[in-house]
Amino acid sequence: MACVFNRLSVWMDPVHRNGPAQMACDEALLADAEEAVLRVFRWSEPWVSAGYFVPWSEAQATRPDLPVCRRWTGGGVVVHEQDFTFALVAPRSETWARQRPDESYRVLHLAAAEALRAEGVDAVLFDGGAASGAECFAGPVRYDVMSGARKIAGGAQRRTKRGLLHQGSIQGTGLAEEFATVLASHLAGETVPWNPPELFESAVSGLLREKYAREDFLRREVP
After folding, report:
1. Does the residue 177 lie in any domain?
2. Is there a domain that residue 132 lies in?
3. Which domain holds residue 63?
4. Does a structural domain hold residue 15?
5. Tens digit of pLDDT for each residue in 19-75?
6. What is the Cβ-side half-sphere exposure of residue 138, based on CA atoms within 13 angstroms?
7. Is there a contact between 143 and 128 (Cβ–Cβ < 8 Å)?
8. Contacts 24+ apart (CB under 8 A), 188-192
9. How many degrees, rounded to 5, is the angle at CA 145 between CA 69 and CA 3?
10. Do 108 and 88 contact (CB within 8 A), yes or no?
């Protein structure tokens, strides 16, 4: 397949952040990005992330032993223990950011499946209907990545006037952080390192304080 981007900046985020800080970081990245950026990150400890529209009661019930954060993106509930997690942002100047939601999802996961196969993982796209239930990895939706009968990769998106954010998780494959290089090479013809600008962490702290760490945001109930 053709590359999704001509050029992609890659940020191997060195900070092991908690759940709310991870979410704040991704929103700050979209607000700042003048180019397509792939962020690969690690968690301070196991967390559960819940999609923006998931009721708090459902999110908390998935894994009562783990803390819960709420994503800005949609989707269901994801348990982050030993998964490979990433965020991909692109400004609206990029074709990918202007594609229909299902097409941008398909194109990204097609590249992810090819990258996984390059690492020896049996990976194909699921082309069936939506599965019920709040937990994302309990059942696949169209264009998720499958290995046999098991879903191994899914994601959720948020669009703004500025661009597109995709938050993704690859589970049960034992991928090392170095998989970021393989994934990036299947997404773009050219990859370069990305370094956060001077005030980036201040923006993350602001979003954390004003939004993601607030109980009213976390515990919102959806009718």
Report:
1. yes
2. yes
3. 5-218
4. yes
5. 999 999 999 999 998 999 999 999 999 999 999 999 999 999 999 999 999 999 999
6. 12
7. no
8. 188/3, 188/4, 188/5, 188/6, 188/7, 188/8, 188/36, 189/3, 189/5, 189/6, 189/7, 190/6, 190/7, 190/8, 191/7, 191/8, 191/9, 191/10, 192/7, 192/8, 192/9, 192/10
9. 100
10. yes
Q: How many domains does the chain have?
A: 1
User: d(Cα 220, Cα 223) in Å, to the nearest integer?
Assistant: 10
Identity at 9, one-letter amino acid code: S
Which sign, positive or negative, has the C-alpha torsion 194, 198, 201, 207?
negative
What residue has token string 């948020």?
158
Who's near 86: CB < 8 A, 6+ residues apart? Answer: 38, 39, 40, 41, 167, 168, 180, 183
The amino acid that residue 73 corresponds to is T
Instruction: Tell me, yes or no, whether 223 lies in a domain.
Output: no
